[in-house]
Amino acid sequence: MGEPVLxxxxxxxxxxxxxxxxxxxxxxxxxxxxxLSVGWPVPMSLQGxxxxxxxxxxxxxxxxxxxxxxxxxxxxxxxxxxxxxxLPSLTGPTAGFLYGFVAMAWLAGLxxxxxxTRNVAAMIAVGIAVSLLLYIPGLAWPAAFLGKTWAQLWxxxxxxxxxxxxIKAVLAAMIVWGGWKAVKDRAS
Length: 188
What we know:
With about 190 residues, the protein is mainly alpha-helical. Helix content is about 70%, strand content about 0%.
């Protein structure tokens, strides 16, 4: 149980085939979860939850590779982004969030690499922090390419999603922490 990353503790990462399998399964998982939306009055996809789960479970390198693969699916035309989006989403108004998911996964994975996913409070803090950092590329894109003002970005692109992103960070932490508890119980 000395392994810092949950996926390595469960199945190991030895071998290229295992790593490719994890990337493919993870990227398909994100694509499926991206089609689920919750909330009112502003529905939000569950991509952020999936990205945190992949990061916390896979570690930094494998998580980043998974997100790059996910973006590649969309770039070649597969409808993997929220609401069945594909290539046009990579240049559309929310493209900054899509690109930011790579950094989000890598940072959550870095926390896993450092062993922070064994502590639910630390994981919640990391999840909230990286979710907030996602707003940097997410808001920079519409500001730069669509000429959106800070007031427009705050009211339509950020404030409606802060509570949901916090809930997703807590859920991701609880799920991964539960995974660690299962690994510990299995080893006992």
